[in-house]
Amino acid sequence: MAGAPQGPPPDISPQVEGGSECFHWPVSCVAMSFTRKLLAWYKRNARVLPWRKTRNPYAVLVSEFMLQQTQVSRVLEFYPRFLKRFPTFGSLARSQPKAVMEAWDGLGYYARARNLHRLAREVTRLHDGTLPDKPEDLRTLPGVGRYTAGAVACFAYEKPVATVDTNVRRVLERAFGSKDVWELAERLVPKKGERAWRFNQALMELGALVCTARKPKCPECPVRSDCRAVRSGIQIRNRQPGHPR
After folding, report:
1. Is 64 a catalytic residue?
2. What is the pLDDT of residue 9?
3. Domain extents for the chain?
4. CATH fold label, 56-157
5. N or C, where is the chain less crowded by C-beta within 10 Å?
6. Long-range pairs of 7-12 with CB within 8 A, sequence gap ≥ 24
7. Which of 64, 102, 122, 158 is catalytic?
């Protein structure tokens, strides 16, 4: 019915014994099982990607800008070259727009390059070349939305914050039947920074490799026994692919 209020988010928070101190909110056995299986799967199956090997805020930020609406394989071609040419915020800020666009040429979505250049100049001018570590501060910068702010805070500074891109949204909607995925993600993310880093990376990896938009590989999914869609026998329809990372 039009205008009908949405139902409450899925109940993942009954009291349980032990383990709840690892999370931002008391969580159910299903949520704890989901996280444990997800992290174990990620440890065995994570792709080796250069931006996962660094906590350098600038390098992480560049990767996040490049990965917006762009295949990982394509970003792998441009990422090392761009960092070699512009290794710091300062070097990027001092560059002429033409040089930045030339380095970005072929990657597409050129507004990202313009925003990244503006951001570098702003960080250099207003923050002494140091990228803020809080999502709310990051979101004041050019081209940085809610996802990118959370991703940089978590992946560069290991802040225990949620990062919801298209892949994560799809996983959480299917697994928990949630529509308010940001609220759910914030409740699920572990408190400890390093574990939060792995949890967020693992969610995105699961969405990219297994819980895909088209033809999800449910039999291969490590959390299929905890997935509401699988348990309910819901047929997952093929959808247009989302964020391709």
Report:
1. yes
2. 46
3. 20-44+161-231, 56-157
4. Endonuclease III; domain 1 (1.10.340)
5. N
6. 9/178, 9/179, 9/180, 9/183, 9/184, 10/176, 10/177, 10/178, 10/184, 10/228, 12/176, 12/184, 12/187, 12/188
7. 64
